[in-house]
Amino acid sequence: MNATSNPYDAPFVSIGDQIRNWAVEQGDHPALVCEGTTYSYADFDVMIDRCASALQRDGVMPEDVVAICANASPWYAAVFLGALRAGAAVAPLAPSSHPDSLAGMIANAGARVLFLDASVREALQSAATPPSVRTVRLDAQGDAEDTTGIDAWLAPRGAVPRHVDIRPEWAFNIIYSSGTTGVPKGIVQSHAMRFAYGLRSVARGYGPESVTLISTPLYSNTTLVSFFPTFALGGTVVLMPKFETKRYLELAQQHRATNTMLVPVQYQRLMAEPDFDRYDLSSFVSKSCTSAPFNAGLKADVVRRWPGSLTEFYGMTEGGASCELCADEHPDKLHTVGRVMPGHEMRLIDPAGNELPPGSIGEIVGRSPTMMTGYYRQPDKTAEAEWYDRDGQRFIRTGDIGRFDEDGFLVLMDRKKDMIISGGFNIYPSDLEQVLLQHPDIAEAAVVGVSSERWGETPVAFVTLRGDVSAHAQALAAWANERLGKMQRVSEVVIADALPRSAIGKILKRELREGFRPSSPL
Fold it and tell me: What pLDDT score does 3 carry?
């Protein structure tokens, strides 16, 4: 499946130079708003220069790596962009990671400097971090024990860093995958890849008049695909360090937000907010969603009640090809993730790596201008993620199973690793989840495969209930099994208060699977 027109043909300009240009052209224009404080492009450019100058003073060279592990803040943003202006790559790390995993990522990245806050500093005390890494506290004033506070570390106001001629192929950032054991894989994204993300955002209404409301963590690629294009195109970022439904709606109304990127669970909570319809959201031009399955009914509700377009993006942090679904334009395709984006190419392959003909179900592979360089210092893992066609063209394997419908819209079946093989039959958990979500008492559903002596694997459903309703697990299982095929039937339904999620809203099916204890032999 191929979309041929290419919107990515434009001369490369680094993000640091783009912001500097905006500081000259519209110095008084708001660049960043956070917790009641507004930073103009002139102010923000000075903050970035102070960070870049301090890094150069400390010996950080182009193509070195710095790490940031902290909650979102203006100085987090300035440090990230300052490192990029100095030519360094940034490894943004999740503060919620296990301390040993954090230490492993810092070591794998070879970080010269680690920027953190109080919570992360305390967690790392029990882990063996490389002794050569300098630490700077983003939330500390002056010196703080064995770390340096941000104000003491910064170069003086007015400092101008040495200009670095950024090359498009240099690493922009290293995004670590959300692995739960061992050291997660570091996904290297280039400056060229981030530049391409910026160019494609023009079509979604990003520009000098745009106001992007950011409420997901800054270490997540989900956030960065909106965060950086806003600055690159001269808009304003309203940064919300912690997501709360009413506060989000207040900020959207107050700042006349035009753009936002949210994950499905955030849309779910916002649409369930009793006061949602009382807020003026008429300023929105576009809303986006990615990172986790987005229920068709929820998409329809967002389209109906929230002004502005709604676009769902399907893709991977590793890059490869992406799809986009313009939900308001295709109300009959809300069960899909849309068509392949312009300049991107997708194909389907079988387990042996053979390309499949149209109409088949197979693993999705893709290629585009937005592809990772590879996994940092893990060439074997990089090779596992790649697939080459007969002409030697490089594709990225997604690990997702899907098919294209007759109109070229991609229907996702499931993650390859989540597919259940029961009695020799392939069962796609998403099919079962869609049936369960039709029950009026079920708010969320996740289906996983667990070991079964009789079938090898068997599906078990975990659900949460709406509001104050009460329901019996056995009755829910019976209701679902009446509507499922014989080989799809769930062995058990477990009612939970909440489903375990990552910081960006992905349901952690591994935790469900590992914590499951059957009520009877399966």
Answer: 46
Structure tokens at 147: 């770390």
**CATH code for position 98:** 3.40.50.12780
- CA distances to 14, 53, 92, 122 from 70, in Å: 25, 21, 9, 12
Domain-located, residue 40: yes
What predicted TM-score, i.e. pTM, was given to this entire model? 0.86
How high is the pLDDT of residue 203? 86
Interacting residues of 517 by C-beta distance below 8 A, sequence separation 6+: none
- How far is the C-alpha of 42 from the C-alpha of 464, rounded, in Å? 48
Strands 134-137 and 148-149: parallel
Parts of the chain with a pLDDT under 50? 3-7, 142-144, 179-181
SS3 of 318, please? coil
Count of domains forming the chain: 3
| Residue 382: CATH number of its domain | 2.30.38.10
The pLDDT, as a whole number, for residue 129 is 66
Task: Tell me whether residue 248 is in a domain.
Answer: no
Residue range 397-428, pLDDT digits in tens: 999 999 999 999 999 987 777 888 887 777 88
Residues 355, 380 share a domain? yes
Question: Is 228 among the domain residues?
Answer: no
Q: Give 338's contacts (C-beta < 8 A, 6+ positions apart).
A: 312, 314, 323, 324, 325, 326, 330, 409, 410
- Token code pair at residue 120: 């992360």
Same domain, yes or no, for 22 and 166? yes
Q: Which domain holds residue 352?
A: 315-414
Burial of residue 323 (CB within 10 Å: 0-12, 13-18, 19+) is buried
The reply to whether 410 and 454 lie within a common domain is no
SS (H, E, C) 84-103: HHCCCEEEECCCCCCHHHHH
Burial label for 137, CB within 10 Å (0-12, 13-18, 19+), is buried
Strand partners, 374: 188
507 and 359 in one domain? no
Mark whether 374 and 430 lie in a shared domain: no
Query: Three-state secondary structure along 251-296?
Result: HHHHHCCCEEEECHHHHHHHHCCCCHHHCCCCCCCEEEECCCCCCH
Q: Last residue of some domain: 150, 169, 190?
A: 190
Distance CA 498, CA 88 (A): 40
Q: Is 487 exposed, middle or buried (0-12, 13-18, 19+ CB in 10 A)?
A: middle
Across 177-221, the runs of DSSP E, i.e. the strands, are 186-190, 211-214
In the prediction, which pLDDT does 179 show? Answer: 46
- What confidence score (pLDDT) does residue 200 get? 87
Q: Which of 385, 414, 443 is the last residue of a domain?
A: 414
Helix (H), strand (E) at residue 75 = helix 74-85
Please report the pLDDT score of residue 193 as a whole number: 92
d(C-alpha 385, C-alpha 383), whole Å: 5
The answer to whether residues 88 and 43 touch, using CB atoms and an 8 Å cutoff, is no
Q: Structure tokens of 454?
A: 């009789």
Assigned domain for 230 exists: no
pLDDT at residue 470 in the model: 85
